[in-house]
Amino acid sequence: MAEDFDCAICQSRVDMRWSRYRHDGPIAPVCRRCETYYGRHRSVPMAGAFRDRREVRRGLALSEALRCEAAQQKWRQADARA
Ligand SMILES: [Zn+2]
Question: Helix, strand, coil shares of the chain as percentages rounded to 5?
Fold first, then answer.
């Protein structure tokens, strides 16, 4: 039974009340929107089981979100020095 959770990327609350019955519903710890947005990556495999590809996409989404945050902090520091 899937519990409600807070997205690890955008921190929004994910309501699993209806989503748990959907095969394409959100899977903790990333909401569907972040999974789609940050998971757009060419290394996501085109072959393999649907569920396995989503596992890969969620991992990529998490690493991509971290990379974006790190880049933003780097630029903010560069701005502060200028
Ligand atoms: Zn999210």
Answer: 50, 5, 40
Ligand 1 centroid–CA 34 distance in Å is 4
| Residue boundaries of the structural domains of the chain | 5-81
Say how many Å lie between the CA of residue 18 and the centre of ligand 1.
17
Nearest to 7 by CA among 68, 71, 61, 79: 61
3 by Cβ neighbours in 10 Å (0-12 / 13-18 / 19+) ranks as exposed
The CA 82 to ligand 1 mean position distance, Å, reads 33
pLDDT in single tens digits along all 82 residues of the chain: 678 999 999 999 999 988 777 888 899 999 999 999 999 877 778 888 888 899 999 999 999 999 999 999 999 998 888 7
